[in-house]
Amino acid sequence: MTKFSEPQKPIPQKKAEKLDYSAYYQKEKTKKELAALRQKQELTDLQQKVENTLAPEEREKMKRNQFESFFTGLLKLDKNSKVVKFLVGITSWFADKLGAGGKALSDEEVFGRLDEAKKEAIESGIVAHKGSGEKPNSKEGIAESLKNGETEIEFDVRLVGSELYLKHDPMETGDNMSKLSRFKDVLPLFQQNPSARMFIDIKGGRATARSIMKAIRDADKNPAFSEAPLEKRAFFVGFNPETLATVREEMPNAPCLFCYIPTGGYPAVEQSIVRRIESRQITKGQLTKVLETVDFLGGGKTRYAANFKHGSLHINGKNPYGMARPEQLHTYSTLPPDSILQMVRSSGGALTVPWDLVKSFSRFFQEAQAAGVKVAVYGFENPKGIESRIDRHNSDVKRAIAMGASLIITDHANYWAK
Question: Of 51, 84, 119, which one is at a domain's C-terminal end?
């Protein structure tokens, strides 16, 4: 029997061993290197196969293009060459490696795309989100980006009273107006940089859009900057199709970028949440609680609940909660209706969507291409100062362009330069 009066001997504690992960990291690095070598070998084998099928005159033509890549040289060969088979194979190979769920293209489809690309050079641009710089959505941040050589700058503008300010989220009680940059104070930065273009995200309705267009036209009255008017360098971004329609009516040459959420890439989410919101099985109060939880778990970096409070949610063209507000969020399974597609297409704009929702959703890019509309993607917000994250960011950007994106809107446009 244990005598409780006797002191118990302390159990000796082992010193915590310092774990050495170097072997694990080396093993993972070796795996990646081997995978890269295998992929390189696959490409080399494919290249050798096609070289063996080329006629002598085609080989000579390839040699003359010695300063071009092998694949660039292939595009200059005759349509009737056996190289068509290679192009079909390489298209399937890349689709598989990208995880895009692509299928092998027929000879006709391959050359149809090549001919189309010759007719219209599709621009792939990197756009600095929120002006980037150390101070997002500010005159100082935009000036910093322009100084660093950025020429495509996106920023948010909203109407507060009779003045336009750069601000992403809705105004809340206690917001310090003196810390906000005025839109009219930002315009001279673009006048002094004639190659720079503005991507103006309209946070509001028709009145906000009209105020922005008036401010641009007033600035263009300055004869010192008449050679590069701002109106010709303004792109309008928005979540409210009616607001963009106003821009289309009053500034018809301005490209319009319609932002929305495509949900078809995540069927489980579409079935369990989106459809339930559409049929009002989830009440407005319940959805607010969900968004507040998401904001809390996100460490305060998101303000979905506040934006939902000030805006209206539209599911496949329906407004389940009956809120008609200028600030809107639209979701569609894949593409929006023809009326929106026509507005975007005719303006030379783009459908603008979050990268995380489409990076494995190849059908979205295929349907957008079939509809003749360009795609812009955003959501490349990786932490600063981590070299591996820079590599990941740039890898995502390359993949987005390969899948069909024409514009990349990122908080870290400077990563791409590296």
Answer: 119
237 plus 377 within the same structural domain: yes
Decide: helix, strand or coil at residue 406: coil
pLDDT band at 401 (very low <50, low <70, confident <90, very high): confident
| Residue of 308, 336, 333 whose CA lies nearest to 323 | 308
Strand, coil or helix: 49? helix
Which structural domain, as residue segments, surrounds residue 297?
267-315
Q: What is the pLDDT of residues 206-230, one digit of tens each?
A: 999 999 999 999 999 999 888 899 9
SS3 category, 394: helix
Per residue, the 3-state secondary structure of 335-387, as one string, reads CCCHHHHHHHHHHCCEEEEEHHHHCCCHHHHHHHHHCCCEEEEECCCCCCCCH
Give the total residue count for the chain. 418
- 96 and 196 share one domain: no
**Whole-number Å distance between alpha carbons of 109 and 106:** 5
> For residue 148, what are its two tokens?
């660093």
pLDDT recorded at residue 97? 46
**Between the ranges 34-48, 305-319, 404-418, where is the mean pLDDT highest?**
305-319
| Least trusted range by pLDDT, from 168-182, 187-201, 284-298, 368-382 | 284-298
CATH number for 156:
3.20.20.190
Q: Which long-range contacts (CB under 8 A, 24 or more apart) does 381-387 make?
A: 381/129, 381/410, 381/411, 381/412, 382/411, 382/412, 382/415, 384/412
Whether residues 343 and 409 fall in one domain? yes
The answer to whether residue 9 is domain-embedded is no
Whose CA is closest to 142, among 190, 91, 176? 190
Residue 220 and residue 120: Cα distance in Å, rounded? 30
- Verify that 91 and 158 share a domain, yes or no: no
How many Å is the Cα radius of gyration of the chain? 27
